[in-house]
Amino acid sequence: MDTLLLFITLIFEISFAIYCMVTKQNHKKIKNWIRIAIFIAFVMFTLSSVIVWSLRWVMLAILLFILAVKGTVSLIRNKTNTDKYKTFKIVWKSIIMILAFVVVLAPAIVFPQHKSPKVTGEYDVATATYTYVDKKRMEEFADTGQNRFVNVEFWYPKNADGRYPLLVFSHGAYGIKASNTSTYMELASHGYVVVSIDHPYHSFYTRSEDGTVVLLNTDYKREIDNMNKGAYTKEKLFELNQKWMKLRTDDMNFVINTILEKAKSDNKPTYQCINTEKIGVFGHSMGGAASVWLGRERNDIRAVVNIDAPFFSELIYKKEIDDYVASSEAYTTPLLNIYSDDVWRQLESNSTYVANKPNNEQLKEAYTVHFKGAKHLSLTDLPLFSPILANILQGGKADIDPYYCIETENELILKFFDYELKGIGHFTPKGTY
Fold first, then answer.
1. How far apart (Å, rounded) are the C-alpha atoms in residues 152 and 420?
2. Which residues are registered as beta bridge partners of 128?
3. N or C: where does the chain have the smaller number of CB atoms within 10 Å of the terminal CB?
4. What is the CA radius of gyration of the chain?
5. What gap in Å lies between CA 166 and CA 163, rounded to an integer?
6. How far apart are CA 172 and CA 165, in angstroms?
7. Cβ proximity of 124 and 161 under 8 Å
8. Under a CB-based contact definition with an 8 Å cutoff, are residues 128 and 268 in contact?
9. d(CA 256, CA 238)
Protein backbone atom coordinates (compact mmCIF):
# COMPACT_ATOMS: atom_id res chain seq x y z
CA MET A 1 0.00 0.00 0.00
CA ASP A 2 2.81 2.44 0.90
CA THR A 3 4.77 2.05 -2.34
CA LEU A 4 1.52 2.03 -4.33
CA LEU A 5 0.52 5.40 -2.87
CA LEU A 6 3.96 6.83 -3.62
CA PHE A 7 3.79 5.48 -7.18
CA ILE A 8 0.34 7.00 -7.71
CA THR A 9 1.57 10.34 -6.34
CA LEU A 10 4.56 10.35 -8.70
CA ILE A 11 2.40 9.48 -11.71
CA PHE A 12 -0.19 12.13 -10.83
CA GLU A 13 2.27 14.96 -10.22
CA ILE A 14 4.31 14.22 -13.33
CA SER A 15 1.25 13.71 -15.53
CA PHE A 16 -0.48 16.84 -14.27
CA ALA A 17 2.69 18.90 -14.76
CA ILE A 18 2.97 17.63 -18.35
CA TYR A 19 -0.74 18.39 -18.94
CA CYS A 20 -0.27 21.95 -17.69
CA MET A 21 2.80 22.46 -19.87
CA VAL A 22 1.09 21.06 -22.98
CA THR A 23 -2.02 23.25 -22.49
CA LYS A 24 0.04 26.15 -21.12
CA GLN A 25 -2.44 26.68 -18.28
CA ASN A 26 -2.26 26.28 -14.48
CA HIS A 27 -5.56 24.35 -14.08
CA LYS A 28 -5.85 25.26 -10.40
CA LYS A 29 -9.56 24.46 -10.22
CA ILE A 30 -9.04 20.91 -11.48
CA LYS A 31 -6.15 20.38 -9.08
CA ASN A 32 -8.26 21.62 -6.14
CA TRP A 33 -11.02 19.12 -6.92
CA ILE A 34 -8.47 16.32 -7.26
CA ARG A 35 -6.91 17.22 -3.86
CA ILE A 36 -10.33 17.07 -2.20
CA ALA A 37 -11.13 13.76 -3.90
CA ILE A 38 -7.82 12.23 -2.80
CA PHE A 39 -8.43 13.20 0.83
CA ILE A 40 -11.97 11.74 0.73
CA ALA A 41 -10.59 8.52 -0.82
CA PHE A 42 -7.94 8.28 1.93
CA VAL A 43 -10.61 8.64 4.62
CA MET A 44 -12.79 6.00 2.95
CA PHE A 45 -9.87 3.57 2.60
CA THR A 46 -9.04 4.09 6.28
CA LEU A 47 -12.64 3.59 7.47
CA SER A 48 -12.95 0.44 5.35
CA SER A 49 -9.61 -0.90 6.74
CA VAL A 50 -7.97 -1.03 3.32
CA ILE A 51 -5.52 1.27 5.07
CA VAL A 52 -5.04 0.09 8.66
CA TRP A 53 -4.73 3.28 10.69
CA SER A 54 -1.54 3.68 12.69
CA LEU A 55 1.17 6.26 13.37
CA ARG A 56 2.75 5.49 9.99
CA TRP A 57 -0.10 7.32 8.26
CA VAL A 58 -0.32 10.43 10.47
CA MET A 59 1.92 12.74 8.42
CA LEU A 60 0.24 11.71 5.16
CA ALA A 61 -3.20 12.36 6.66
CA ILE A 62 -2.13 15.83 7.83
CA LEU A 63 -0.72 16.75 4.41
CA LEU A 64 -3.80 15.50 2.54
CA PHE A 65 -6.07 17.36 4.97
CA ILE A 66 -4.17 20.63 4.52
CA LEU A 67 -4.27 20.30 0.72
CA ALA A 68 -8.01 19.47 0.80
CA VAL A 69 -8.81 22.45 3.06
CA LYS A 70 -6.72 24.75 0.89
CA GLY A 71 -8.49 23.47 -2.24
CA THR A 72 -11.92 23.83 -0.63
CA VAL A 73 -11.26 27.41 0.43
CA SER A 74 -10.00 28.26 -3.05
CA LEU A 75 -13.10 26.77 -4.67
CA ILE A 76 -15.47 28.53 -2.24
CA ARG A 77 -13.83 31.88 -2.89
CA ASN A 78 -14.06 31.07 -6.62
CA LYS A 79 -11.28 33.50 -7.28
CA THR A 80 -10.49 34.02 -10.92
CA ASN A 81 -7.07 32.71 -11.76
CA THR A 82 -4.99 35.67 -12.83
CA ASP A 83 -1.60 34.01 -12.43
CA LYS A 84 0.32 33.85 -15.67
CA TYR A 85 1.37 30.38 -16.78
CA LYS A 86 5.07 29.75 -16.19
CA THR A 87 6.66 26.38 -16.99
CA PHE A 88 9.34 26.81 -14.33
CA LYS A 89 6.72 27.45 -11.66
CA ILE A 90 4.74 24.33 -12.65
CA VAL A 91 7.83 22.13 -12.59
CA TRP A 92 9.06 23.60 -9.30
CA LYS A 93 5.70 23.09 -7.55
CA SER A 94 5.55 19.50 -8.78
CA ILE A 95 9.03 18.76 -7.45
CA ILE A 96 8.18 20.29 -4.05
CA MET A 97 4.96 18.27 -3.85
CA ILE A 98 6.72 15.01 -4.78
CA LEU A 99 9.37 15.63 -2.12
CA ALA A 100 6.65 16.39 0.43
CA PHE A 101 4.90 13.10 -0.31
CA VAL A 102 8.19 11.20 -0.09
CA VAL A 103 8.74 12.66 3.38
CA VAL A 104 5.25 11.98 4.72
CA LEU A 105 5.19 8.47 3.26
CA ALA A 106 8.65 7.60 4.65
CA PRO A 107 7.29 6.02 7.88
CA ALA A 108 4.93 3.81 5.87
CA ILE A 109 7.72 2.82 3.48
CA VAL A 110 10.21 2.00 6.25
CA PHE A 111 7.53 0.33 8.41
CA PRO A 112 4.99 -0.92 5.85
CA GLN A 113 1.52 -2.18 6.56
CA HIS A 114 1.76 -5.99 6.73
CA LYS A 115 -0.25 -9.00 7.74
CA SER A 116 0.51 -10.65 11.06
CA PRO A 117 1.87 -14.22 11.18
CA LYS A 118 -0.84 -16.73 11.94
CA VAL A 119 -1.85 -17.47 15.52
CA THR A 120 -3.23 -20.99 15.81
CA GLY A 121 -4.05 -21.52 19.49
CA GLU A 122 -7.47 -21.61 21.13
CA TYR A 123 -6.84 -18.82 23.66
CA ASP A 124 -7.27 -15.10 23.10
CA VAL A 125 -4.13 -13.31 24.24
CA ALA A 126 -3.86 -10.50 26.79
CA THR A 127 -0.80 -8.38 27.52
CA ALA A 128 0.58 -6.42 30.46
CA THR A 129 3.74 -4.36 31.01
CA TYR A 130 5.62 -3.73 34.25
CA THR A 131 8.81 -2.14 35.50
CA TYR A 132 10.77 -4.15 38.08
CA VAL A 133 13.41 -2.38 40.21
CA ASP A 134 16.27 -4.52 41.51
CA LYS A 135 17.16 -3.10 44.92
CA LYS A 136 20.23 -5.35 45.10
CA ARG A 137 21.94 -3.87 42.04
CA MET A 138 23.02 -0.36 41.15
CA GLU A 139 22.78 0.82 37.54
CA GLU A 140 26.27 0.50 36.03
CA PHE A 141 25.49 2.40 32.82
CA ALA A 142 24.29 5.65 34.39
CA ASP A 143 26.01 7.72 37.07
CA THR A 144 22.74 8.47 38.84
CA GLY A 145 23.02 6.40 42.00
CA GLN A 146 19.85 4.54 41.00
CA ASN A 147 19.03 0.88 41.22
CA ARG A 148 18.95 -1.26 38.10
CA PHE A 149 15.47 -1.51 36.59
CA VAL A 150 14.11 -3.94 34.00
CA ASN A 151 11.00 -3.47 31.84
CA VAL A 152 8.99 -6.56 30.97
CA GLU A 153 5.91 -7.37 28.93
CA PHE A 154 3.63 -10.36 29.41
CA TRP A 155 1.61 -12.26 26.82
CA TYR A 156 -0.77 -14.74 28.45
CA PRO A 157 -4.09 -16.55 27.90
CA LYS A 158 -6.97 -14.13 28.37
CA ASN A 159 -9.59 -15.21 30.92
CA ALA A 160 -7.25 -18.01 31.94
CA ASP A 161 -8.88 -20.94 33.69
CA GLY A 162 -5.74 -22.80 34.69
CA ARG A 163 -2.02 -22.48 35.28
CA TYR A 164 0.42 -22.42 32.42
CA PRO A 165 4.21 -22.79 31.95
CA LEU A 166 6.32 -19.63 32.19
CA LEU A 167 8.57 -18.75 29.24
CA VAL A 168 11.13 -15.93 29.54
CA PHE A 169 12.58 -14.28 26.42
CA SER A 170 15.76 -12.19 26.02
CA HIS A 171 16.30 -10.02 22.91
CA GLY A 172 19.42 -9.62 20.77
CA ALA A 173 22.30 -7.16 21.08
CA TYR A 174 20.38 -4.08 19.88
CA GLY A 175 16.92 -5.59 20.13
CA ILE A 176 13.75 -4.74 21.99
CA LYS A 177 11.37 -6.91 23.98
CA ALA A 178 8.85 -6.89 21.10
CA SER A 179 11.35 -8.39 18.61
CA ASN A 180 9.55 -11.76 18.40
CA THR A 181 5.98 -10.73 19.20
CA SER A 182 4.53 -13.26 16.75
CA THR A 183 6.28 -16.03 18.69
CA TYR A 184 4.92 -14.81 22.02
CA MET A 185 1.41 -14.56 20.57
CA GLU A 186 1.52 -18.09 19.19
CA LEU A 187 2.84 -19.54 22.45
CA ALA A 188 0.35 -17.65 24.64
CA SER A 189 -2.53 -18.73 22.41
CA HIS A 190 -1.59 -22.34 23.19
CA GLY A 191 -1.48 -21.90 26.95
CA TYR A 192 1.83 -20.31 27.95
CA VAL A 193 2.68 -17.21 29.94
CA VAL A 194 5.42 -15.45 27.98
CA VAL A 195 7.43 -12.60 29.48
CA SER A 196 9.89 -10.69 27.33
CA ILE A 197 12.61 -8.53 28.87
CA ASP A 198 14.01 -5.20 27.78
CA HIS A 199 17.61 -5.08 29.00
CA PRO A 200 18.11 -1.31 29.57
CA TYR A 201 21.12 0.14 27.74
CA HIS A 202 21.45 -3.14 25.80
CA SER A 203 18.09 -2.59 24.07
CA PHE A 204 17.62 -0.05 21.28
CA TYR A 205 15.16 1.72 23.54
CA THR A 206 12.95 0.88 26.50
CA ARG A 207 10.08 2.73 28.14
CA SER A 208 9.25 2.33 31.84
CA GLU A 209 5.82 2.48 33.43
CA ASP A 210 6.45 6.10 34.48
CA GLY A 211 7.25 7.09 30.87
CA THR A 212 11.03 7.21 31.27
CA VAL A 213 12.81 6.27 28.03
CA VAL A 214 16.32 4.80 28.04
CA LEU A 215 18.27 4.40 24.79
CA LEU A 216 21.09 2.11 23.70
CA ASN A 217 24.33 2.84 25.55
CA THR A 218 26.96 4.25 23.16
CA ASP A 219 29.89 2.45 24.84
CA TYR A 220 28.09 -0.87 24.60
CA LYS A 221 27.23 -0.17 20.94
CA ARG A 222 30.89 0.61 20.26
CA GLU A 223 31.91 -2.69 21.83
CA ILE A 224 29.46 -4.63 19.65
CA ASP A 225 30.52 -2.74 16.51
CA ASN A 226 34.20 -3.41 17.23
CA MET A 227 33.45 -7.09 17.83
CA ASN A 228 31.70 -7.33 14.47
CA LYS A 229 34.73 -5.68 12.84
CA GLY A 230 37.10 -8.20 14.45
CA ALA A 231 38.88 -5.47 16.41
CA TYR A 232 39.40 -7.49 19.62
CA THR A 233 41.82 -10.20 20.57
CA LYS A 234 40.19 -13.46 21.56
CA GLU A 235 41.16 -12.90 25.17
CA LYS A 236 39.58 -9.42 25.20
CA LEU A 237 36.47 -10.69 23.45
CA PHE A 238 36.14 -13.46 26.02
CA GLU A 239 36.23 -10.83 28.80
CA LEU A 240 33.54 -8.77 27.04
CA ASN A 241 31.34 -11.82 26.52
CA GLN A 242 31.54 -12.59 30.23
CA LYS A 243 30.60 -8.99 31.06
CA TRP A 244 27.64 -8.95 28.66
CA MET A 245 26.41 -12.33 29.85
CA LYS A 246 26.60 -11.32 33.51
CA LEU A 247 24.31 -8.33 32.94
CA ARG A 248 21.90 -10.39 30.82
CA THR A 249 21.71 -13.37 33.17
CA ASP A 250 21.46 -11.11 36.23
CA ASP A 251 18.46 -9.42 34.60
CA MET A 252 16.87 -12.75 33.70
CA ASN A 253 17.47 -14.23 37.15
CA PHE A 254 15.99 -11.12 38.75
CA VAL A 255 12.90 -11.23 36.52
CA ILE A 256 12.28 -14.93 37.10
CA ASN A 257 12.75 -14.62 40.86
CA THR A 258 10.47 -11.58 40.97
CA ILE A 259 7.74 -13.41 39.07
CA LEU A 260 8.05 -16.48 41.31
CA GLU A 261 7.64 -14.28 44.38
CA LYS A 262 4.66 -12.41 42.92
CA ALA A 263 3.01 -15.68 41.96
CA LYS A 264 2.74 -16.42 45.69
CA SER A 265 0.87 -13.26 46.69
CA ASP A 266 0.04 -10.93 43.78
CA ASN A 267 -3.54 -11.39 42.56
CA LYS A 268 -2.95 -10.02 39.07
CA PRO A 269 -3.88 -12.60 36.38
CA THR A 270 -0.41 -12.33 34.88
CA TYR A 271 0.95 -14.04 37.99
CA GLN A 272 -1.92 -16.22 39.16
CA CYS A 273 -2.08 -18.18 35.89
CA ILE A 274 1.59 -19.26 36.07
CA ASN A 275 2.69 -22.82 36.80
CA THR A 276 5.92 -22.05 38.65
CA GLU A 277 7.08 -25.65 38.37
CA LYS A 278 7.43 -25.41 34.59
CA ILE A 279 9.83 -22.74 33.33
CA GLY A 280 11.52 -22.35 29.95
CA VAL A 281 13.84 -19.65 28.60
CA PHE A 282 14.58 -18.59 25.05
CA GLY A 283 16.21 -15.72 23.21
CA HIS A 284 17.63 -14.42 19.96
CA SER A 285 21.35 -13.80 19.38
CA MET A 286 22.88 -12.47 22.60
CA GLY A 287 19.59 -13.29 24.32
CA GLY A 288 19.91 -16.87 23.09
CA ALA A 289 23.41 -17.10 24.55
CA ALA A 290 22.10 -15.79 27.88
CA SER A 291 19.27 -18.35 27.80
CA VAL A 292 21.72 -21.22 27.30
CA TRP A 293 23.79 -19.82 30.17
CA LEU A 294 20.74 -19.72 32.43
CA GLY A 295 19.85 -23.27 31.46
CA ARG A 296 23.12 -24.41 33.01
CA GLU A 297 22.98 -22.04 35.98
CA ARG A 298 19.45 -22.62 37.30
CA ASN A 299 17.96 -25.92 38.40
CA ASP A 300 14.37 -24.83 37.76
CA ILE A 301 14.85 -24.22 34.01
CA ARG A 302 13.37 -27.22 32.22
CA ALA A 303 13.81 -26.24 28.56
CA VAL A 304 15.92 -23.79 26.52
CA VAL A 305 15.63 -22.46 22.96
CA ASN A 306 18.71 -20.81 21.47
CA ILE A 307 18.01 -18.73 18.37
CA ASP A 308 21.18 -18.04 16.36
CA ALA A 309 23.68 -17.55 19.18
CA PRO A 310 27.05 -18.95 20.32
CA PHE A 311 27.24 -20.85 23.61
CA PHE A 312 29.25 -18.34 25.64
CA SER A 313 28.57 -20.36 28.78
CA GLU A 314 30.21 -23.41 27.21
CA LEU A 315 33.42 -21.66 26.10
CA ILE A 316 36.76 -21.70 27.90
CA TYR A 317 39.59 -19.41 26.83
CA LYS A 318 43.00 -21.13 26.72
CA LYS A 319 45.78 -18.58 26.90
CA GLU A 320 48.45 -21.04 25.80
CA ILE A 321 46.74 -21.52 22.43
CA ASP A 322 45.02 -18.12 22.36
CA ASP A 323 41.72 -19.71 21.43
CA TYR A 324 38.48 -21.11 22.78
CA VAL A 325 37.68 -24.71 23.62
CA ALA A 326 34.36 -26.26 24.52
CA SER A 327 33.59 -27.05 28.15
CA SER A 328 33.94 -30.72 29.13
CA GLU A 329 30.97 -30.48 31.49
CA ALA A 330 27.77 -32.06 30.21
CA TYR A 331 24.83 -29.78 29.45
CA THR A 332 21.76 -31.57 30.71
CA THR A 333 18.87 -29.12 30.15
CA PRO A 334 16.79 -29.95 27.03
CA LEU A 335 17.92 -27.57 24.29
CA LEU A 336 16.68 -26.57 20.83
CA ASN A 337 19.08 -24.67 18.56
CA ILE A 338 17.69 -22.72 15.59
CA TYR A 339 20.26 -21.36 13.13
CA SER A 340 20.23 -19.06 10.11
CA ASP A 341 22.79 -19.26 7.31
CA ASP A 342 24.74 -16.47 9.04
CA VAL A 343 25.55 -18.72 12.01
CA TRP A 344 25.33 -22.12 10.32
CA ARG A 345 28.31 -21.42 8.07
CA GLN A 346 30.41 -20.43 11.10
CA LEU A 347 29.89 -23.61 13.12
CA GLU A 348 32.94 -25.29 11.62
CA SER A 349 35.11 -22.25 10.87
CA ASN A 350 34.77 -19.91 13.86
CA SER A 351 36.07 -21.00 17.25
CA THR A 352 33.48 -18.79 18.95
CA TYR A 353 31.03 -21.51 17.91
CA VAL A 354 33.20 -24.47 18.87
CA ALA A 355 30.72 -25.53 21.58
CA ASN A 356 27.79 -25.21 19.15
CA LYS A 357 29.02 -27.94 16.82
CA PRO A 358 26.41 -30.67 16.44
CA ASN A 359 29.04 -33.31 17.30
CA ASN A 360 29.77 -31.75 20.72
CA GLU A 361 29.50 -34.74 23.06
CA GLN A 362 28.47 -32.53 25.98
CA LEU A 363 25.37 -31.37 24.07
CA LYS A 364 24.68 -34.44 21.98
CA GLU A 365 21.06 -34.56 23.16
CA ALA A 366 20.34 -31.07 21.82
CA TYR A 367 18.07 -30.58 18.81
CA THR A 368 19.57 -28.55 15.97
CA VAL A 369 17.73 -27.10 12.97
CA HIS A 370 18.91 -24.86 10.15
CA PHE A 371 16.76 -22.42 8.15
CA LYS A 372 18.40 -22.45 4.74
CA GLY A 373 18.38 -19.05 3.08
CA ALA A 374 17.65 -17.22 6.34
CA LYS A 375 19.70 -14.35 7.67
CA HIS A 376 20.23 -13.48 11.33
CA LEU A 377 17.19 -11.19 11.59
CA SER A 378 14.96 -13.58 9.62
CA LEU A 379 14.42 -15.33 12.96
CA THR A 380 12.73 -12.21 14.37
CA ASP A 381 9.67 -10.21 13.25
CA LEU A 382 11.76 -7.34 11.87
CA PRO A 383 11.70 -8.46 8.18
CA LEU A 384 7.89 -8.24 8.39
CA PHE A 385 7.78 -5.04 10.41
CA SER A 386 10.48 -3.25 8.41
CA PRO A 387 12.03 -5.11 5.45
CA ILE A 388 14.20 -2.11 4.57
CA LEU A 389 15.66 -1.83 8.07
CA ALA A 390 16.21 -5.60 8.32
CA ASN A 391 18.06 -5.67 5.00
CA ILE A 392 20.28 -2.77 6.04
CA LEU A 393 21.14 -4.26 9.43
CA GLN A 394 21.86 -7.76 8.15
CA GLY A 395 23.62 -6.77 4.94
CA GLY A 396 21.07 -7.80 2.35
CA LYS A 397 17.80 -9.59 1.71
CA ALA A 398 17.37 -13.16 2.92
CA ASP A 399 16.65 -15.94 0.41
CA ILE A 400 13.71 -17.31 2.40
CA ASP A 401 10.09 -16.23 2.56
CA PRO A 402 9.79 -14.23 5.79
CA TYR A 403 6.35 -15.61 6.67
CA TYR A 404 7.39 -19.21 6.08
CA CYS A 405 10.49 -18.64 8.19
CA ILE A 406 8.88 -17.04 11.24
CA GLU A 407 5.76 -19.22 11.21
CA THR A 408 7.80 -22.42 10.93
CA GLU A 409 10.14 -21.21 13.66
CA ASN A 410 7.15 -20.43 15.90
CA GLU A 411 5.71 -23.88 15.24
CA LEU A 412 9.00 -25.58 16.16
CA ILE A 413 9.39 -23.58 19.38
CA LEU A 414 5.80 -24.37 20.36
CA LYS A 415 6.20 -28.11 19.71
CA PHE A 416 9.49 -28.19 21.62
CA PHE A 417 8.05 -26.51 24.71
CA ASP A 418 4.90 -28.62 24.44
CA TYR A 419 7.02 -31.76 24.51
CA GLU A 420 9.43 -30.68 27.25
CA LEU A 421 7.11 -28.71 29.55
CA LYS A 422 3.68 -30.23 28.93
CA GLY A 423 4.59 -33.74 27.83
CA ILE A 424 2.52 -33.37 24.66
CA GLY A 425 3.35 -35.50 21.62
CA HIS A 426 6.82 -36.10 20.23
CA PHE A 427 9.42 -33.64 19.00
CA THR A 428 11.20 -34.83 15.88
CA PRO A 429 12.25 -31.78 13.83
CA LYS A 430 13.91 -31.95 10.44
CA GLY A 431 17.53 -30.87 10.20
CA THR A 432 16.90 -28.27 7.50
CA TYR A 433 13.91 -26.08 6.65
1. 24
2. 154
3. N
4. 27
5. 9
6. 23
7. no
8. yes
9. 26
